[in-house]
Structures are given as structure tokens and as C-alpha cells.
């Protein structure tokens, strides 16, 4: 069926409007965090994979870091192991760590790799252990109401070795990274996927850090999406209890990333199909934007 005249004009307009963005972003790195909440619908998996394949085809360098919190929760429940979070971090004992590694390193990771292949791209799945991409250490922090809580094998990124990523890039593979890493102490660590994405974006001096989640962005108490905030304003929102749970590590790593040299960080609603492309290819963008110019 041929396009109607209006549709054809719109289609051509959208295509030509994207040209300056394609020219600007060719060769640039985009670290995209695909949150577990944004991947619950199989149709979203497909549209996400198509977007990433398109980015790669027009010369951008997308690097995927994925979460899988809800998917880990489902298996833990089936195994009758309780899930517990403290300030957005999963309390991770030895048994929980085994489940986290199985779900993130195997099922979720391979599902994303598969969907990229189904859409014509080439992807390689890896955890932080592969090629020793990531080295972890126990996450520091004063956890729990008394600040004394030990949250177990929860890690942070101690160092990054980008050799394996460069190898994949040379062969046009899209890296799909699960946020698990070994530590120098020989233990395996569960790292919040936002933290991994933020650190990778910093080290790679990425053009954008894109955090795809299940809300339109950072929201105030009335549900309005906030954008263009200073670090001081973000700190106040945390003190006021407006930013809680999984949004805490998300906003913190977005701020750290732009302080560390990433051009911009975006918190985007990944439950809207093609949200990532809209962010890249439109002037207004969508969601919550954080840039270094706004810090202070
Ligand atoms: N101020 C806020 N604005 C938006 N979301 C918030 C805020 N405070 C807490 N949240 C919660 O953070 C969640 C996103 O974090 P998380 O559940 O870890 O998602 P993901 O799996 O995408 O990383 C939202 O679904 C929301 O419930
Ligand atoms: C320490 C910690 O909390 N790790 C996360 C890792 C997965 C993740 O970050 O998944 P989402 O992005 O879907 O939330 C977890 O165990 O759930």
C-alpha cells in the first residue's frame, strides 16, 4: 500500500530532521541503561532492540547496560527467598547472589542479545567478569536506620578495563553488559545497574548516559516531571523525601557522570516505545535532562 501524501510528507520531514543529529553523533558513545522495569513487556524489548540497531547502523556507538530487578524478584519468590532493599540497593547474601548472577548474567542478558539479533544487529553479552571489564569492591555506605546495616555482596565499580569493549567495537558488536563483577577478594558482587552505566559512561567520556526506567523522569511530589535541576536542588529533593528507592542511585549516578565528563544524562520513560530515539533525534528531548552546566 502506498503512503498518503500527508503521511509521506511527515515521513520525509522526520527523516530529514534527524540528519543533523546523525551527523553530530556519528562515532559518539551512548551508554544506555535498560532498566528491569522498562523491559517487562516483550514488545518493548523489540522496539528497544530496533532503536539500538538503528543507532549502530547510522554510525553511533551504543553500549547497553541492563538491570533486571523485577526479574530477580520473580525467581527469588519462586525459590522462597525474601527480597529486601535498603536505599534502592538489594540486600545480597550468598544465596541471593547466586540467583542474581543466574538471572542477570544468563536469562535477561541473553534475551536482550537475542532480540538485537532478531532485529538485524550483532550483539555480545557479557558480565563485568568477562575480559575483567569491571572490578568490584564492597559498596561503602551507612546502611539502615542506625547506619550499621551490612547489605552483603553489594558492590561498586572499583575499576574498568575497556579492552574488551574496544575489541567488540572494532568488530561492530553491540556490547550488552550485566552488572555483576568479581572483587579482588574473590567474591562476586551485585552492582546496581545504574552505577555501572554511570561509571562506564564516565570512563568512555560518553556523549549521553541514558537511563531507561518506568517513570517519565524525575518527578516532584505532585507528579510533575522535573528537568534542568542543579545539584543543590536535587540534594534538597532527597532531604525532603521526594526522591526515594530506585530513583536515589539513578539520580546520584547521573550527577556523578556529568561531573565526570559525560556531556548529558537523561532519565527517560522506557515503557514508551522508541523513547530513546525521541531523546536523541528531537530538539526538545524527553524526560529529565542533567548537564554539567546545571550543577551548582
Ligand atoms: N522523585 C521520584 N521521581 C520518579 N520516580 C521515583 C521518585 N522517587 C522514587 N521513585 C521510584 O523510582 C523508581 C525507578 O527506579 P527503579 O525501580 O530502580 O527502576 P529501574 O528498574 O528502571 O532502575 C520509580 O518507579 C519510582 O517508583
Ligand atoms: C545492588 C542492587 O540493587 N542490584 C540490582 C541489580 C539489577 C538492577 O539494577 O536492576 P534494575 O535496574 O532493574 O533496578 C538488583 O539486585 O536488583
TrEMBL record:
Its EC number is 2.7.2.8. Belongs to the acetylglutamate kinase family. ArgB subfamily. It is found in: Cytoplasm. CDD domains: AAK_NAGK-C. Its main location: cytoplasm. One of its GO terms (biological process) is L-arginine biosynthetic process via ornithine. The keyword Signal does not apply. Catalyzes the ATP-dependent phosphorylation of N-acetyl-L-glutamate. It catalyses: N-acetyl-L-glutamate + ATP = N-acetyl-L-glutamyl 5-phosphate + ADP. This is Acetylglutamate kinase. It holds the Pfam family AA_kinase. GO terms for molecular function: acetylglutamate kinase activity; ATP binding. GO terms for cellular component: cytoplasm. Pathway: Amino-acid biosynthesis; L-arginine biosynthesis; N(2)-acetyl-L-ornithine from L-glutamate: step 2/4. NCBIfam families: argB. Residues 29-269 form the Aspartate/glutamate/uridylate kinase domain. Keywords: Amino-acid biosynthesis, Arginine biosynthesis, ATP-binding, Cytoplasm, Kinase, Nucleotide-binding, Transferase. Substrate binds at residues 68-69, 90, 190. The record marks 33, 250 as: Transition state stabilizer.
Amino acid at each position: 500500500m502506498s503512503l498518503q501524501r500527508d503521511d509521506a510528507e511527515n515521513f520525509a520531514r522526520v527523516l530529514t530532521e534527524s540528519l543533523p543529529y546523525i551527523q553530530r553523533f556519528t562515532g559518539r558513545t551512548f551508554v544506555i541503561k535498560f532498566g528491569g522495569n522498562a523491559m517487562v513487556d516483550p514488545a518493548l524489548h523489540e522496539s528497544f532492540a530496533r532503536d539500538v540497531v538503528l543507532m549502530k547502523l547510522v554510525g553511533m556507538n551504543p553500549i547497553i547496560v541492563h538491570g533486571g530487578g523485577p526479574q530477580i524478584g520473580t525467581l527469588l519468590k519462586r525459590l522462597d527467598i525474601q527480597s529486601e532493599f535498603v536505599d534502592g540497593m538489594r540486600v545480597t547474601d550468598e544465596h541471593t547472589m547466586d540467583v542474581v548472577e543466574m538471572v542477570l548474567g544468563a536469562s535477561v542478558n541473553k534475551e536482550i542479545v537475542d532480540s538485537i539479533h532478531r532485529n538485524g544487529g550483532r550483539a555480545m553479552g557479557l558480565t563485568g567478569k568477562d575480559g575483567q571489564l569491571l572490578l568490584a569492591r564492597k559498596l561503602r555506605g551507612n546502611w539502615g536506620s542506625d547506619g550499621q546495616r551490612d547489605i552483603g555482596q553489594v558492590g561498586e565499580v572499583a575499576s574498568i578495563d575497556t579492552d574488551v569493549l574496544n575489541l567488540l567495537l572494532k568488530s561492530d558488536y553491540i556490547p550488552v553488559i550485566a552488572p555483576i563483577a568479581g572483587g579482588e577478594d574473590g567474591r562476586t558482587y551485585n552492582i546496581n545497574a545504574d552505577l555501572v552505566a554511570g561509571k562506564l559512561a564516565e570512563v568512555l567520556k560518553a556523549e549521553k548516559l541514558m537511563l531507561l526506567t518506568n517513570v517519565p523522569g524525575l518527578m516532584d511530589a505532585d507528579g510533575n516531571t522535573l528537568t534542568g535541576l542543579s545539584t543543590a536542588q536535587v540534594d534538597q529533593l532527597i532531604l525532603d523525601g521526594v526522591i526515594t528507592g530506585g530513583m536515589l542511585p539513578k539520580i546520584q549516578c547521573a550527577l556523578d557522570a556529568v561531573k565526570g565528563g559525560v556531556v548529558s544524562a537523561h532519565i527517560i520513560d522506557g515503557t514508551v516505545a522508541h523513547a530513546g530515539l525521541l531523546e536523541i533525534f528531537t530538539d526538545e528531548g524527553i524526560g529529565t535532562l542533567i548537564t554539567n552546566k546545571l550543577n551548582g
